[in-house]
Amino acid sequence: MTLLPSCHDVQTHLTEYLEGTLPFHRRFGIGVHLLFCRVCSGVLRGLRALPWVAKASLKAPASAPEAAQQALANVQALLRKSPR
Ligand SMILES: [Zn+2]
Fold first, then answer.
1. 47 Cα: distance to centroid of ligand 1 (angstroms)
2. Number of separate domains in the chain
3. Which residue in 71, 83, 4, 79 sits closest to 13, CA to CA?
């Protein structure tokens, strides 16, 4: 299992990423991928230029803090288990 999503996976979920509807662990993986991938960050810039996506991205994420904390705990547990 890889922790970071592929370019295909990132680009498939970019709209949900912008809308803030993905679970925390998915947003985290995509966010890290976007830091290092010029192709996907370019696609993200293109999506943000679309008015309906820009409007939707201004809304607060619909996630609950408890769910985000649980997802972070799950990711940290996976990182502790994974061989180095
Ligand atoms: Zn990419």
1. 14
2. 1
3. 4
